[in-house]
Specification:
Elements lengths: L1 H18 L7 E6 L4 H16 L7 E7 L4 H15 L10 H4 L2 E5 L5 H18 L5 E5 L6 H10 L12 E6 L6 H14 L5 E4 L6 H11 L13 E9 L8 H26 L8 H14 L8 E4 L1 E6 L2 E3 L17 E7 L9 E7 L6 E8 L19 E7 L3 E9 L7 E9 H5 L7 H10 L8 H20 L8 E3 L5 H8 L9
Parallel strand pairs: 1-2, 1-4, 2-3, 4-5, 5-6, 7-12, 9-17
Antiparallel strand pairs: 7-13, 8-11, 9-10, 11-12, 13-14, 14-15, 15-16
Helix pairs in contact: 2-3, 2-12, 6-7, 7-13, 9-10, 9-13, 10-13
The chain binds 6-O-phosphono-beta-D-glucopyranose (BG6).
């Protein structure tokens, strides 16, 4: 009964939260690179969900822009994407009203005449639909086109308001550079045309509820923050493990590798949420300042504190899989890392002396992203009669995906005439408490970008700060090509050196 009451109260809060009005102004979402997978699999389903939830303005349109003319198949393709990607039941929905204002436009990204036509095309939609000149441009294209597209948008007057209150925002997909110099260059090029508050660098991890919940967990509760520091925390682990390989993205992955693909962005964003000081408010600039302070406080990372790996053949989920070097369009002697682990140290008042271990990799034993906070042991072992191995530290696990939730282990007395202690677990599950969410992470980010709220986006200074940390490692690695690749079997937990990195500090990665 008590549990039922609790559940009802929690659900009421959730529903009320959902109803908070955050409806953007009338606008057109213009997606460059609309023939790509992202538009169909993620963006259109996300926009459709927003529409269903009543979170979009009445006057709203989507224009897909791509270089190939796929106008004949575009609508059907997008509908298919919404049905599959949005968990939408075909018999249940009428996509027509939404699809009526989903249009397609073909132009190459360096064609001035094409951009002029696009401008007029959008102005026509403004007249018909009432979208008032507001634009959200989404650059779902390869990074080499970012500057071309923004330049042309600027040149053809599509980035500056002509009426009071009008806005033009631009979302940019990662990668934001491949090292510090290229990130700076890219930022300079884009900033020539756009103000920083018009740019929304998307990191889809920040769209994940469970990543946002790190901040709610820490700053929306009174009991955790007082112990969230070096006095109580022994160390922190962050793991982003994937079972999948490179999914046919050979050429991209060959030039990226695990550090650039996941660690520099997704893992570093998660780390900043785990480690930052409480911001003055949940406003973009306040959050950004605190995140930046974390990255700036990280000690330069020694190459000896890093491990790289590459998977060889093995078994994942009982299925035989090939090694990285055998993947399509991958060099048979490739030195690209598919796994990376590091030990870092944040040199500030809160974290001095607390090692942070991070790792990310492909073709690992399990798909799991988790933050594990391991607390210090009590100052003395009072229960001397126990098997001391049984006395484990308290561990807080924030499971970002899958089985999203949070658990806390603590020692409990085993019933019986002796005082034996056994670790037990308190568990919160998103699915049990809130039901299954159909959101894919992009809903929140698209909505925030329309509203001009940059809190959950990467900013110029942050991107450069994380590259400043990672670039020396990439340079050091380049000087010392790996001699042992492939050094882990697909389906394992990565190379032995990653365990050795922990063992050096008399620690072990927590089982996930
Ligand atoms: C992307 C990477 O940014 O993130 C992919 O390019 C990776 O290689 C993906 O698989 C992981 O995202 P998620 O949401 O599945 O954890």
């Amino acid at each position: 009964m008590a549990n039922e009451v609790k559940q009802t109260v929690m659900h009421m809060g959730y529903e009320e939260g959902k109803k908070q009005e955050r409806i953007p102004d009338p606008c057109i979402v213009v997606i460059f690179g609309a023939s790509g997978d992202l538009t169909k699999r993620k963006l259109l389903p996300a926009l459709y969900h927003l529409k269903q939830e009543g979170m979009l303005p009445e006057s709203f349109a989507v224009v897909g822009v791509a270089r190939r003319d796929i106008s004949a198949t575009f609508s059907a393709d997008m509908e298919d994407g919404i049905l599959k990607g949005g968990g939408v039941d075909e018999s249940d929905v009428d996509l027509k009203p939404f699809m009526e204002n989903v249009k397609y436009f073909t132009t190459s990204f360096d064609d001035d005449a094409g951009f002029e036509k696009l401008k007029n095309f959008l102005a026509e939609i403004d007249k018909k639909v009432g979208t008032k000149g507001n634009r959200l441009f989404y650059l779902a294209v390869a990074p080499e086109y970012f500057a071309d597209i923004t330049d042309r948008l600027g040149k053809h007057g599509m980035t500056k308001a002509t009426l009071p209150g009008q806005w033009m925002h631009v979302i940019i997909e990662k990668p934001f550079g491949t090292d510090l110099a290229s990130a700076r260059k890219l930022n300079d090029e884009i900033n020539r045309v756009l103000n920083e508050d018009q740019i929304f660098r998307i990191d889809h991890y920040l769209g994940k509820e469970t990543v946002q919940n790190i901040l709610v967990f820490r700053f929306g509760n009174g009991i955790f923050e007082p112990i969230w520091n070096r006095n109580y925390i022994d160390h922190v682990e962050i793991t982003a493990a994937e079972c999948i390989g490179i999914e046919g993205r050979g050429p991209f992955y060959e030039s990226a590798g695990a550090l650039r693909d996941v660690l520099q962005n997704h893992v570093m964003e998660v780390l900043s949420f785990v480690a930052m000081e409480p911001p003055d408010s949940f406003e973009s600039s306040a959050v950004r300042t605190e995140k930046l302070k974390v990255w700036h406080a990280i000690d330069p990372i020694e190459v000896e504190d890093t491990v790289r790996g590459q998977y060889g053949p093995g078994r994942v989920d009982g299925e035989k899989v090939i090694g990285y070097r055998e993947e399509d369009r991958v060099d048979s002697e490739s030195e690209t890392e598919t796994f990376v682990a590091m030990r870092l140290q944040i040199e500030n008042w809160r974290w001095a002396g607390v090692p942070i271990y991070i790792r990310a990799g492909k073709r690992l034993a399990k798909r799991v992203t988790e933050v594990t906070v391991v607390f210090k042991q009590p100052p003395m072992h009072m229960f001397k009669s126990n098997d001391t191995k049984q006395v484990k530290p308290n561990v807080l696990k924030m499971r970002i995906q899958p089985d999203e939730g949070i658990s806390l282990t603590f020692g409990a007395k085993v019933p019986g005439p002796t005082t034996n202690v056994m670790p037990v677990e308190m568990h919160f599950s998103y699915a049990e408490n809130f039901g299954k969410s159909s959101a894919n992470g992009y809903e929140r980010l698209l909505l925030d970008a329309m509203l001009g709220d940059g809190t959950l986006f990467a900013h110029r200074d942050g991107v450069e700060a994380t590259w400043a940390l990672m670039t020396p490692i990439l340079e050091a690695w380049a000087k010392r090509p790996p001699s042992d690749f492939p050094n882990y079997e697909a389906g394992s937990w990565g190379p032995a050196a990653a365990d050795a990195l922990m063992k050096r500090d008399r620690r072990k990665w927590h089982k996930l």
